[in-house]
Structure formats: structure tokens, C-alpha cells
Queue: 2 jobs
Job 1
Amino acid sequence: MEKEAISMPFKVYVFGHGLETAIKLQGSTPHDQLLIGTSDSFSGLLLFAIGSLLFMVGFVQDREFQSFFAKGCVLLHISVAVWRVYFGMKLEDLAFDWPRQVFGDFALALSWVFFLVYSWREKYD
């Protein structure tokens, strides 16, 4: 008797949302599963692009550009947090996850604020 192979996205869903929600997020029809898989693929591509952009910005020596970039990242993380509060909690299957995700978004925004404070301190000391 062979064990049924469990896909990697399902394991990630279970880790992030719990077993019951992960089963719901897999979709019930092949069309739903295709849409969810496509969405996951585009999310991964977006994360790769963002990582590449951060890597490239890390080599820029211009402090004003880095400050501008950090301010944009703070705005982006706060916007995502607001989106999660207004729309994320309306999704029945993910309703209990939004407070944790909003906290994470604010923590990421705060990390960029710390970078801005550190840069400001270096500039004026």
C-alpha cells in the first residue's frame, strides 16, 4: 500500500492556516485547483522579483535613493495591512488569520522605519 503524496503547497497551507482551512483552500473542482495553483505561481514570481529588486537596491550607494525606497516600502506595508483589515477579514476561511498577518505587516513597516532612523542618525552625526 503506497502513501498518497502530499503536495508542497498543501503543506505550506497546513503550516500557515491549519488543516481545515488548508483543505478548503485546495478547491473542490479541477478549475478551482488550477486557479489556486496559478495564483500561487504568480505569488512566487512576485516574491522572486521583490527579492531581486531588494538585492539590487542594496548595492546602491546613494543614501537619498535608499531613503526614498525605504519610505515607499513603509507605505506599501501599511497599505497591505489596511487592505487585510478591510477585505481580508471578510473572507470566511481566512478570518482568523488577518490579525497575525496585520501584525506582521506592521512589523515589516517598522523595520524600514528603523532603517530610516538609522540612516538619519548617520547623516546628521
Note: The helical segments are 8-17, 19-25, 30-57, 63-86, 98-124.
Job 2
Amino acid sequence: MEFILILLLVVVIAVGVWGLTAYNGFIKERNLIQESWRQVDVELNRRYELIPNLVETVRGYAAHERNTLEGVVRLRAQAQQIAAHEGGAAPSEARAEAEEQLSSAVRGLMVSVEAYPELKSNQNFLELQRALAETEDRIAAGRRYYNANVRNYNTRTESVPTNLIANAFHFEKATYFEVNDPEVRRAPDVSFGEIAYRGDEPQQPGQIPPAAAPQLPNPQQAPQIPQQQGYQPPSYGQPPQAPQQQGYQPPSYGQPPQQ
């Protein structure tokens, strides 16, 4: 009887220790999510501060982009209003959607100013463009870190047996800060057909043609041995005749030499 009581006591203590560890783990991961979101929120607020200066600079050189400028200003005010309402807490779906629309509008504004060379050479605009590019890079890096922490936290809230602690103490799933803009997710298109060589295309003047491909031998065709001209095999049926020397007369030993 005492053994059973001791065993039950050990089981209760083990379950209590596990529950306390799981609870502290949820608290730690939730605080990590909030901390990682603050880093993203700081960069988003920095972008709010840069956009008005960018709009005023573009307006001085590109008055025809009135609709684009008004859209950027409107989306900035909308995103800033949602951020003030949430008070720096983890982002909601409305905040993520507003920030996504604002990012798309700013990219569209940067594309439209390509038609204004004077604006592209303006020092103030170049500085704002560089600052915005750095801010967007920090936002993207912070978003990846935040979403990684959210994934770990949500996995624990749905996994067994930690989901028992999550349900008992009301640890709800966190919201991802995702980007659903197809222009951001789309990979750059690379057409290999444009760089491939086509033999039927006309050659441009001054263009060096590519080297011709070497002709491989045909294994079905036997190689031809060239015949040597002017060569006659010797006839073994007749003895060879010594060549006669022209202009040579043997001396006569029966007659004395003439004086």
C-alpha cells in the first residue's frame, strides 16, 4: 500500500514538473514573439517617417504622378492608424494587409519615377531611396525571424501533449506577418531561348559566328586507305637486272697504251 502511494506521489510530482516546464516554455516563446515583432514595428515606423519626404520630393519633379502619390499617402495613413490602434502588439491580419498594400504602392512609385531623369539625379531623392531600400531589407529580415518564432509557438500549441497546457491556460495561436503580393513572391523570369544560338537566324554585321561543331566519325562507314600512285610491286619470277652505266668503256689489256 505504501509502495502504491509513493508511486502515485512520484507520478503526480512528475506531471506537475512537466506541466510547469511546458507553461514556462509557452511564456518564453510568447515573449520572444513580442520581442521579435517590436523589431519589425520599429522599421515600419521608420518607413512611415520616410514616406512624406519621399512624396514631397517626387511631387516637385513629377507632378503628373498625382494619383500614385495620393495612393501612397492614403495607404500610409491607414497603416499608421491601425498600428496606433493595436498599440505595438503582435500584428493582426488587418495590419499585415495594410502594410502589404503600402509596400506595393511604394514599389509602384519607385517604378514610375524611372521616367524622370532629373528626379533620379536629385541628391535628396537618392538619399531617400537608399534609406527606404535599407528599411525594406530590415523589414524583410525581421519578418522572417518573427514568422519563425510564430511557427515554433503554434506548433507547440497544436502538438500533443503540450496542447493540453495551451488549452488550459488559453495560449492562443499567433498570427503570421505574411506577404501575399504575387510581385514579391514571383521569381525573376529567365528566358534561355533568348541567349541560345539559332542557326537559322541572320548574322548581324560585325558579329562573330560561333565555332562550328566538329563532325564525329560514322562507325558504319569503313575508313578508306589512300592508294599510293607510282608504286609497282616487284616481280619475283625474273631476276632483277642491274642498271647499265652509260659512258663507261672497260680498258683493253692486250694493246699498249697510245702515246
Note: The chain has a mean pLDDT of 77.
